[in-house]
Amino acid sequence: MTLLLPILAFMFVSLLIVAAAMVMAPRMPVAVERRMGEIAAGRAKYVPDGPPQARIVVRALKKLGNVAPKSPSELTKLQRRLVSAGYRGPEAVKIFSGVRLGCAVLAFLLVAMPVLVRPNLLLAILAAVLGYVVPAMVLARLAKRRQHRIRLSLPDALDLLVVSVEAGLGLDQAMLRVGEELGFAHPDLSDELRLINLELRAGKDRVEALRNLGERTEVDDVASLVAILVQTDKFGTSVAQALRVHSDTLRIKRRQRAEEAAAKTGVKMVFPLVFCIFPSIYVVTLGPAAIQIIDMFAKMGNR
User: Fold this and answer.
1) Separation CA 185–CA 188 (nearest Å)
2) What are phi and psi of 269, to 5 degrees?
3) What is the C-alpha end-to-end distance of the chain, expressed in Å?
4) Concatenated DSSP letters for 143-157?
């Protein structure tokens, strides 16, 4: 029995991770168009893809997410964080809440039962709190990584936009073309640009679609780009010239970020040097001398 419980716990955690990855993963553009078509046709019922076992786990996570206590403000923040991380599924919030509550319950049971350690109620409560907090930390990390990828890919996208606009395409067609071209190199920004096109095809205004882009990504450079595009659309100025100037500005900011990161390298290397490298150097260089000194004092004491 004691050997069966860790195996069951490992299988349960693995199923949770696989189900969350399959459901909350960003879909391909074809799937996005199918979802938009279902919404337009009034058939917005969500049916998760995958094998039957995964669907069972997803349904269990959704039920667990419905039981989890949550406030409207927390739901709004969580939904925005999921969208910024690239998880735009309609059931993503419920599934993530179920994963978080399931991790908390599993951590509590593992520590409360005599499986890994001696049962302790206080440690079990701390483990439950940790299991509840860790998924949110992982989600925040995923969102920051995606924002960093979008920030790095933005200058290349602006260059392609400038070329497309100067070639005679409109801004909407240029964004669609750039989204198709960046599908392999920068899939995150490509998905966002294609989603703008889907919103425009669904009937939204261009200004609203661009502002939704800034709210979804939560990247400062994207927000400034949206502000520039809205101003050019409002005042009728040259879009190509504004994009070219903004692209040069972003490249300068990216170079400055790289120089800042390079300047911080020396400070970050202090801790590995002091705690990892210097002790081994001291042992190699001063160790033989210390051994000889100890032997010498030992011989003097024997005399």
Assistant:
1) 9
2) -80, -10
3) 65
4) HHHHHHHHHHHHHHH
Q: Which two tokens stand for residue 227?
A: 């502000």
What are the CA-CA distances from residue 247 to residues 161, 224, 237, 250 (Å)? 10, 11, 17, 5
201-216 residue pLDDT tens: 888 888 888 888 888 8
- Name residues whose C-beta falls within 8 Å of residue 252's C-beta, 6 or more positions apart in sequence: none
d(C-alpha 50, C-alpha 47), whole Å: 10
- CA-CA-CA-CA dihedral for 75, 80, 81, 85, to nearest 10: 140
How far apart CA 122 and CA 171 sit, in angstroms, is: 59
> Residues 137, 140, 141, 145: what is their CA dihedral angle, to the nearest 10 degrees?
180
Q: Quick check: pTM over 0.90?
A: no
Q: Which residues contact 176 (CB under 8 A, 6 or more apart)?
A: 193, 194, 197
Yes or no: say if 102 and 62 are a contact pair by the CB < 8 Å rule.
no
Helix, strand and coil in the chain, % to nearest 5: 80, 0, 20
Tell which residue, 204, 213, 128, has the closest CA to residue 175.
213
| CA distance readout (Å), 86 to 30, 142, 210, 263 | 16, 9, 17, 32
pLDDT tens for 184-197 read 888 898 989 888 88
C-alpha distance from residue 84 to each of 27, 39, 71, 145 (Å) = 14, 22, 20, 10
The strand ranges marked E within 173-243 are: none
